[in-house]
Write a structure and sequence with these properties.
Blueprint: E1 4-8, E2 18-23, E3 30-31, E4 36-41, E5 46-50, E6 55-60, E7 67-68, E8 73-79, E9 110-116, E10 126-131, E11 138-139, E12 144-149, E13 154-158, E14 163-168, E15 175-176, E16 181-188, E17 198-200, E18 205-207, E19 227-234, H1 238-249, E20 254-258, H2 265-270, H3 272-290, H4 305-329, E21 333-336, E22 338-343, E23 346-350, E24 356-366, E25 370-372, E26 384-385, H5 387-390, E27 399-403, H6 407-418, E28 422-426, H7 438-451, E29 454-456, E30 459-467, E31 470-477, E32 484-486, E33 488-491, E34 495-497, E35 530-532, H8 543-557, E36 571-573, E37 578-583, H9 586-591, E38 596-602, H10 607-611, E39 618-624, E40 630-637, H11 640-653, H12 657-661, H13 672-682
Parallel strand pairs: 19-20, 19-24, 20-21, 24-35, 26-33, 27-28, 27-33, 28-29
Antiparallel strand pairs: 1-8, 2-4, 2-7, 3-6, 4-5, 6-8, 9-16, 10-12, 10-15, 11-14, 12-13, 14-16, 17-18, 22-23, 23-24, 25-34, 30-31, 31-32, 36-37, 37-40, 38-39, 39-40
């Protein structure tokens, strides 16, 4: 008989659809009867829901912000052998911070074992057409659990062992491949008297990680840590240092681990900040050239690469130095070196000289970021660089090929073109910057076609030969040219998360095959005291997303009931012109069947845009047709990245078109274009004549 009990909301009187404002337990917690599980808040009172049983929390079925009523499922609990007292009805009380749960009680003699799709040959992304088991079913080894169907055959996937189905993770219509999680089985513990609450070593009890079989549990580190902290943050990029500083502000003893000699991670040292400095230099160069046709003629600027590099490095130094000062003020201890997990509570840090330091922690926030994707067929050659190499400005090549028409590739192409390189861009897909709508990207594409040597879309690099006279590139695709010779190649085809590079498996942290770590809305991994933020936890890989996630993780570590619930996250390409978008694109709205309307304002009717000598910009707003609420926007033009913030706030605040159009914007400014796009949707715009739509 299964030892797992489903815990539901009991009789809470006349209350219905009551909001959950706190979840007071975590997976793996051992709890007693009457320990509070969740806190509810109605318009009349707050109340805690107590546990009717003693046991160990196996799965939580609710999230902060959910609304529940009598009978709603809260969590799954593995019952203790002997409950202590009878359950009581919940009583209204004052809200308080989450507790860590009661001391462990008796636990049953079972463990949870995950079941994955086995080797199914060459098949990948195969449809699940049947799920043959349900939670609570008792099954035996070789019992079929799901049926898959490819274009060639149907196949049943058998269970690798006997047990009781605890939870099913696949559903009809899913597509799965080898290694994907199907279900979790409750099986007899091979340790006999062992439990799912703790794993015992010769030294001290070590928490067992829910969902991992006994043989897969991480081995505890035997030894003493050189340093110890309440919270250790692995990685000091924008998300990492934000998390460390916030945790320190909340009273935690914090250690911050960073592989670079300066704080700031990739973003400040070899990413966002140095690239934006060089993009500003490129903008100055281009504006000096553009204004020749408007009567301002300058002598062609002389580029001093050494001085430009020194200025760029100075910008980086000012920011990273400021972070070091902030860490010192907050008493955050910084350990420089490459960190890797050695168990659930220790990280080994290896510095540049090879010396190691063991850092122990009670809680950890992983902020280890990502690295540039490498193309395996490219030869090893110093003339082939990634974005980090491009920022070093060692030389300005005569002909440069940029592989990848996304944000990073086009930003660096903007810099090198301004400095004198002939640029060619090759992109596999049918458009540049594919995340944004094509009409928003089109003005940039048209400008680059005039500036660059060539732009090849729907084309890929098939082969590169490193010759003494240059890099010979062979192309494939609908628009592929004949083989070309380039002086340098910039590879900008994306970034890969560093989940597999920090040996997270030693701590039991689940990392998928791509290197991502799955987290909940509180940034908690499958190991309850370890959190993850930033590039590691999924798209979009953006610093401003990581910053907000870092604050959430730090606050949860400090016992606050905080969660990450951003409705939208903006994206910006700092090209010339800039491209920014947020929320639903028009293409997404169409694909999802959303009834939408749009308001578009061309910048050729903007006095401020014309005074800048730039008329190619567009502001496009996407609205829900029925409610009139803004659900997305795309902007192309100078300073688009600054303008998009107004739309971000509008979406988060639930604004409709009139909220924006009736807000008085300063004139003449580019920000007016946002209001005018809203007026275009409403039909109240006077700065353009837009014929009324036929009903």
């Amino acid at each position: 008989m299964s030892n797992i009990e489903q815990i539901h909301v009991p009789n809470i009187g006349e209350f219905d659809n009551v909001e959950i404002i706190e979840i007071l337990v975590s997976v793996g917690d051992a709890i007693n009867i009457d320990d509070p599980l969740i806190t509810l808040e109605s318009d009349k009172a707050s109340m805690e829901i107590p546990s009717p049983l003693s046991g160990t929390v196996q799965e939580i079925h609710v999230n902060l912000g959910d609304k529940v009523s009598e009978g709603s499922l809260i969590l799954s609990l593995e019952k203790a052998v002997e409950p202590k007292v009878a359950a009581q009805e919940p009583q209204p009380l004052v809200q308080k911070n989450a507790s860590s749960g009661a001391a462990p009680g008796d636990a049953g003699k079972t463990v949870l074992k995950d079941v994955y799709v086995p080797n199914i040959g060459d098949f990948e992304n195969v449809d699940v057409i049947e799920v043959l088991v349900a939670p609570g079913d008792r099954i035996h080894e070789e019992t079929p659990v799901i049926t898959l169907e490819s274009d060639k055959a149907s196949m049943e996937v058998p269970s690798p062992g006997s047990g009781t189905v605890h939870s099913v993770h696949a559903k009809v219509g899913d597509q799965v491949s080898q290694g994907d999680l199907i279900l979790t089985l409750e099986v007899a513990s091979p340790r006999g008297a062992g439990t799912t609450a703790t794993a015992t070593t010769d030294s001290a009890p070590v928490p067992v990680i829910p969902g991992l079989a006994v043989d897969d549990q991480p081995t505890p580190y035997i030894g003493n840590a050189d340093l110890q902290a309440d919270v250790v943050v692995l990685g000091a990029g924008p998300g990492g240092y934000t998390a460390a500083f916030r945790a320190a502000d909340l009273g935690k003893k914090v250690i911050l681990i960073e592989r670079y000699s300066n704080l700031g991670g990739v973003c400040l040292n070899v990413g966002c900040i140095p690239s934006k400095a060089l993009l500003h230099a490129a903008k100055v160069l281009e504006e000096s050239r553009d204004f020749r046709k408007h009567g301002l003629k300058f002598v062609e600027p002389e580029v001093d690469l050494d001085a430009l590099r020194e200025w760029k490095n100075g910008v980086v130094s000012r920011l990273t130095g400021g972070l070091a000062g902030l860490a010192k003020q907050r008493k955050v201890q910084v350990v420089h070196g490459y960190g890797r997990f050695i168990d659930q509570n220790n990280i080994e840090v290896t510095d540049a000289e090879g010396a190691t330091t063991t850092v122990g922690f009670t809680q950890c926030i992983i902020a280890a970021g990502s690295t540039a994707v490498k193309l395996p067929f490219l030869p090893e050659d110093p003339r082939i660089i990634d974005s980090t190499g491009a920022l070093q400005l060692k030389e300005i090549p005569k002909r440069m090929l940029v592989i990848g028409g996304g944000i990073i590739g086009l930003e660096m192409a903007t810099v090198y073109h301004a400095l004198g390189s002939q640029i060619t861009v090759v992109e596999m897909l049918d458009n540049l910057i594919t995340g944004a709508d094509k009409d928003i990207v089109k003005p940039l594409h048209k400008r680059l076609e005039k500036q660059y040597e060539a732009i090849y879309t729907q084309t890929r690099v098939a082969k590169v030969e490193a010759l003494k006279k240059g890099l010979k590139v062979t192309f494939e695709g609908a628009k592929a040219p004949e083989p070309q010779l380039y002086d340098s190649i910039l590879v900008a085809v994306g970034r890969s998360p560093n989940g597999h590079k920090i040996e997270a498996q030693n701590a039991g942290v689940a990392v998928d095959k791509h290197g991502f770590i799955q987290v909940d809305k509180q940034q908690r991994t499958n190991v309850p005291h370890i959190f993850a933020i930033g590039d590691l936890v999924g798209q979009p890989m953006l610093a401003h997303k990581a910053v907000h996630e870092g604050k959430v993780a730090a606050e949860v570590c400090a016992g606050l009931s905080t969660f990450f619930d951003a409705w939208v996250i903006p994206s910006v390409a700092y090209t010339d012109p800039e491209i920014a978008w947020v929320g639903k694109t028009e293409a997404e709205a169409k694909a999802e069947g959303i009834k939408y309307g749009k308001g578009t304002f061309p910048w050729m009717a903007s006095g401020r845009s014309l005074s800048l000598g730039r008329d190619e910009g567009i502001t496009k707003m996407i609205f829900d047709q029925e409610s009139g609420q803004v659900i997305g926007a795309g902007i192309v033009g100078p300073n688009a990245g600054d303008l998009i913030a107004e739309v971000c706030l509008a979406i988060e605040m639930g604004c409709d078109a009139s909220d924006i159009s009736l807000t008085v914007h300063p004139h003449p400014t580019l920000s007016e274009t946002v209001a005018m796009a809203a007026e275009a949707f409403e039909g109240t715009l006077t700065d353009l004549y837009i014929p009324k739509r036929k009903k």
